[in-house]
Amino acid sequence: MTFAEYIWLDGSDPVQELRSKTRTVRLKTDTPKPRDFPDWSFDGTATGQADCRYSDCALTPVCVVSDPTWDDPTWDGEHYLVLCEVFNADGTKHVTNTRGDLRSILRAGAEGADAWIGFEQEYTLFRDGRPLGFPKDGLPEPQGRYYCSVGADRAYGRKIARKHAELCQKAGLMFHGLNAESLPGQWEFQIGYRGNDGEDPSLLNAADHLWLARYLLHRVAEEYGVLVSLDNKPVQGNWHGAGMHANFSTRQMREDNGLTAIHDAVELLSRYHGQHIAVYGDRLAERLTGQHETCAITEFRVGNADRGASIRIPLDVEQRGAGYFEDRRPGANADPYRVAARIAETVCMIDTG
Ligand code: ADP
Ligand code: MN
Ligand code: MN
Ligand code: MN
Ligand code: MN
Predict the structure, then answer these.
(1) Is the CB of 248 under 6 A from ligand 1?
(2) Which of 6, 103, 128, 227 has its C-alpha lying 20 to 30 A from 94's C-alpha?
């Protein structure tokens, strides 16, 4: 017997949360695909996804990786994390199923662009209502010493960040790296594109991996009695917010003269700024103030190597003349399916002419 952890996005508003439940499955293969796992259902009234008269919602597996959280060394079966899409009882896509919306956009034509994405997920670890490293009363030393720091008086929560990296690696996620961030108890990890042969950094797969990595992060922090906050502005005042930069490329951008395609994409993004901002995270205005390495929410600015821009073209991309761009606007609590869908729709499906 094998344990499978079925994971899905719930109906919490305005920020969808993760839910999961465990079951045993009997698999006929050692290398199972999503369709080797049975569909399942759950009580949608308890997750904000149904009213009680017609409460069942259906789970359809869409992405499967190893579950590294079981640590019984004598167990000979594999265990799996099974990410699912949610459907209504009549088989139609549930309104909370944002992955299904991304699928539709890809199928409608964006797929041909062969787009890749890599996310930088920032998060803040909380205990007793304050970030790790914040004193019980008053404030810690001003920010400046915490980013990429080392030392017990400035890097707080490394055990969790490291354990998370290890679990992502064991699960087979496209985990890239991690660093301490600008306020105490704040960290970042990168997931998605990392340039390895045989990996699939397509929009669906990379966004799936980010949701699975978020799931594992909550699980690790749970063991320590610590909360993971994806708030865009976890501490008010002169402190950095938390973002989810999205690094995006199409085949055209990665090939010779890709910079032209990148500039075309940025021009399109500038026209639809408002529509992007609308799905780039809850209470985003608190983070996109024009300070703390952000561009004000009401402005759209592109910059070379500029961390105060909406869109940054990294220095090495400018020098190589090809590569990708970084959309710095998405907040830490953004849904990667929605972010990827908006960028793909704007960049891959609208004609620049
Ligand atoms: P920074 O902190 O300087 O913004 P990071 O190294 O944290 O940069 O993140 C940059 C991310 O860009 C990498 O994690 C990677 O996933 C992504 N990336 C690199 N090349 C491409 C590409 N061609 N297409 C999409 N994403 C890319
Ligand atoms: Mn029951
Ligand atoms: Mn980064
Ligand atoms: Mn960062
Ligand atoms: Mn970045």
Answers:
(1) yes
(2) 227
